[in-house]
Amino acid sequence: MHITTPESDELYIHTVTKATKLLDMSEHEILTKLPPSGRLLFKHTYTNKIYRCTQTNSDDERAHRMHYKKAVAMTKQQHPQLNTTETLELFIDKAEELADYAASTHAFGGLMGVFRNEEDKEWKIHLEIRGLLLTFRMFIQKNEDIAIYIVSKEGRIERPKLLTLPGLSASWYEQAERAYTNIVALFFGYDEAKKVQNHTTAIFMNRDLTPLPTRCIYNHKDLSRWEILQAFLYGYFAHNTPTQRQTYKQWQQEPELFNKLKPEFVSIIGFISGQIWEVMRASKQELASREPTRQEKREKKTDRQAQV
Fold first, then answer.
1. Which of 24, 49, 156, 242 stands 20 to 30 A from 188 (CA)?
2. CA–CA separation, 63 vs 70, rounded Å?
């Protein structure tokens, strides 16, 4: 069945909901079925609609947000957890998407460019920036199979499922573990990262670990990189979480502090993205040399039979 590309972002929720119901596909699968000319528009309408749904509270947007949540919930119910090959394929797809968005931001000064015209809110028209950050967010959210760094709302550091995918080579596990350790060390240093690697009980960042100093002081307290990432990502760019939004606005009121925080946020995004791309390269090598398991072969055979 051919999937038509939505002509505007207003049609996105309806299109995805309808297509998911009719074809029993996830959004990722729908994207792979689109013609090349329609994929970029689909990605742009996706990021634009999700951003608008999280930033506004009008009746119309609340209705769209509700439809989207229903579509997501339905997709999760209908689609079991991805197998190893599917997870690596999705990781590669999203990591390449992240790289494409990152490359496209150079046209207007990179990620730092969004701050240069902040008073005019010019960054909102740059779908590449929005796409980059919304794609990046998938790699740090607990509900995503491709998450490489997870912290719960309570501050608990949780080991990603990605690191325990079955049936991969020792070299892949080594690279994925190295990337994870580097990300933990970004926030806490390598000595503290060892605690995370070796822990057998729950470990909380504010209780069990000491964040690296950033020399960004607010209310006589050295802000951690995780605090900076959360406030910028969930208080301004990708979400409108009330507490994070309030924190972001408070920091804005202190220009000297805020000018230090902006490059810090950009460097955090850049460093983690670099680790994501390292795992992407390892995953490509893994898939190129890996034979599918018997279970995966059976699943593919079942899928082919269902399509006949």
1. 242
2. 11
pLDDT in tens, 205-245: 878 888 998 999 999 999 999 999 999 999 887 767 889 99
Q: What is the pLDDT of residues 72-101, one digit of tens each?
A: 555 445 445 789 999 999 999 999 998 888
Nearest Cα residue to 272 out of 139, 88, 166, 160: 139
Residue 265 · residue 230 · CB < 8 Å? no
Is residue 83 classed as helix, strand or coil in its secondary structure? coil
Strand partners, 141: none
- Contact between 257 and 217 (Cβ < 8 Å): yes
Helix (H) or strand (E) holding 243: helix 242-252
Tens of pLDDT, residue by residue over 134-191, are: 899 999 998 899 999 999 878 889 899 999 999 999 999 999 999 999 999 999 999 9
Interhelix angle 12-23/36-55, nearest 10 degrees: 120
Which of 172-176's residues contact partners 24+ apart within 8 Å by CB, and which partners? 172/282, 172/283, 172/285, 172/286, 175/278, 175/279, 175/282, 176/148, 176/279, 176/282
The tokens of 208 are what? 């069990």
Burial-class residue 228 by CB neighbours within 10 Å (0-12, 13-18, 19+). Answer: buried
